[in-house]
Each structure stands twice: as structure tokens, then as C-alpha cells.
Amino acid sequence: MGLDRLEDWRRTHYSTEITPNLDGQKVTVFGKKQCVVGVRGVVKKSEKAQLGVEIIPEEIKILNYAQHPLALDPTGRIPAELDVRLDARILDLRRPENRAIFKINHEILSLTREYFEKEGFLEIQTPKIIATATEGGAALFPVVYFDREAFLAQSPQLYKEQLTSVFEKVYEIAPFFRAEESRTTRHIAEFISIDVEQAFSTWEDVMKLLENLIVFVLEGVKKKCYRELKILKREIKIPSLPFKRYSYDEVLKVLEGKGFPISWGEDIPTPALRVLGELHPEEYYFIVDWPTQSKPFYIKPKDDKPEICEAFDLMYSWIELASGGTRIHDKETLIKRLKEQDLNPESFKHHLKVFDWGFPPHAGWGLGLSRFLMVLTGKENVRECVLFPRDRDRLEP
Q: For a pLDDT cut of 70, what percent of the chain falls above it?
């Protein structure tokens, strides 16, 4: 049998729009999880039907066939391992649960842009092919750029800082790249970051901006995505403002009492983070007052205690969602910090010369979209919250 053409067929309704109120009305719908079909018929109320309504077909048009056996069951009734699902990602995305994840993803982005527009921010686009590592030399993807070496950008950090001297309040939503060797449930090589930078501001200002954004997005998703949240069996709880803040020293003291001693100045390892998650389940909170040596060179040390810096991490349970802080806007201090981290100031000459043109005090942060989506959807692996994830083992499809 050949394939039918659309010809004069045009969709009148989506299947979700077919309700008992349309009883007796002629409709045309398209879809199906496997073969692609169109159905033209009359809507009829039916107590036996699951939704109280059905379509009595007058004509069915087959637009394309699925070849069996399929790589996985798109209904989800037959479970499959995550790698199998990702290998057949388009089939996997036909499951209502997975479609719901990315409808919520869409709304997060829409609400984020709405929030920044309301707050007077300008959306920017920064280069993704760069000459110098933003965060130092770790976790870089080198690329051949004509006759020289370049790198895929790890973040928009230096560019967004520079642009505060022009536009004052900027944000970017874009992909960035880190050559993560670790195989964890929260690390991927290509990720979407929501980045903010604001002139004449401190870490206190941008922490408030961040927590207000989180609440704004949660309220919006709760209102706009009630169907998707129901499919995912998720309930969104709106946290109180301001979010609680715990100093790095306080966190270390608590962890030591739980049998996880950490040397001062070290990052907090995953097992210890999971302990924090047990202490702060379903809670957004900040970890502040980090050791200067543990944070990137552009984070400003405190004036009265330079071994501590004006940096913060936004946590949800045990997952780090965002990090940020006050930036250094004094050229000599920045050169000093570069040298302390064994970085060559000459490699950052294009950034440093902007300081000679007048650089305002500024602060900002970066928020991982996929991790935030994990929190909202209840998923335990970040790969489920990326359409086509890339990691140490996966470059296809």
C-alpha cells in the first residue's frame, strides 16, 4: 500500500482539545506514536471512553509507516535502560513523560526571559570559539581554528563582565562546553547555562536577583505546566524568600559532625554533598563565604579578610544549581589573582586592557538549566533533561 498525501487535509484540533463540548462536530486530527496517521470523523460523547469522548472515524489517512520491531516501546510500558533510550532518542521523546520534561524546559526559558526583560536586562550573545581559557586550563575542548588552536568556550564569563561597562545589566542563555572526564549523574560535556552580569552591584544584589528568579519561574511553571507536572507526578512547592544562607565554615563543621571531615580550602566532595541533601531535603539554600583559593581568579576577595571571597553557590538539596559572586574590577588585583592561580596574565591581555578604559564594580552568576530542570521534574540523571546529551562516552545520536 502506498502512502497517502495530505492534499486537502488540514488539522482542525489537537487530540488534547477533543472534549465532550465538541459532541457532533467534525474534526481532523493527526498523530500516533508509531505509524503516522490522520483521522477525520465526528466527535461523540461516550461514558465508556477514558476522557468521556471519542472520535467516530469517517476516513483514515496513513501518512507514513513505522518499521517493526522498534528500538524501544514508545508507550513506555516496556521499560528500557537509559542508554537504550538515548540511542533511540526520538522514539523515547514520544513518551508523554519525556515530552512533559521538555515542555517544562521551554517554559523555564520563556519565564526566565520574561523576568530579565522586566528587570531591565539586555540579552547578549558571546563567542563560543575562544583563544584563551576562561576558567583556567582545565576541562577544555581544543579545536582547529584555521591555522591556529582555539577552544570551545566554558562560559561567557569575561565577555559578559566586559559588557557591563557598556550595557550595565546583561544576560545570556547559551550552550557551553567542558571536557568532563567524570561519569556522574549531573555532569555533561555540552550544557545550557543561564548567565547574568550586573554593573554597580555586589554578590548580595545578584543573590537576591537569583532567588527572585527561581521563585518567579517556579510560580510560572506551577501555573502553566499543571498537565505536565501531573504526568510527572510532581508538585512544585514555592520556597520562602530570602533563601537560607550557610557559610562554608558552618557547612564544614556540620559535615565533620556527620563523619565527613574536609580540609579548609577544599571543595565539598559528592558524598558530603549528599549528606547536606539529607539535612536540607527539597530546600533551596546558599553556601557563602568560600575560601578565595577555591574559587576562580575573577572572584573578589573580601576587603577585611582576603582569604575569604564574596562567592556563593546556590544549592537544592545536594545539587549545585548556580555559582557566582562579586567580580574583581581592579586590574592589579586581578593580575595578582591570576598569578596566584598559576595563570599567565599575558594570556588574558585582551581582557585586562578593558580595565584601562574604565570598569565598573560588578557581580553575576551562572545557572545550569538542565540541573534546574532535574529539580523541577524529579529526574535523577541530568541526561534525561537534555534532548541529545553529550558526555565522555556519547557523541551520537
A: 98
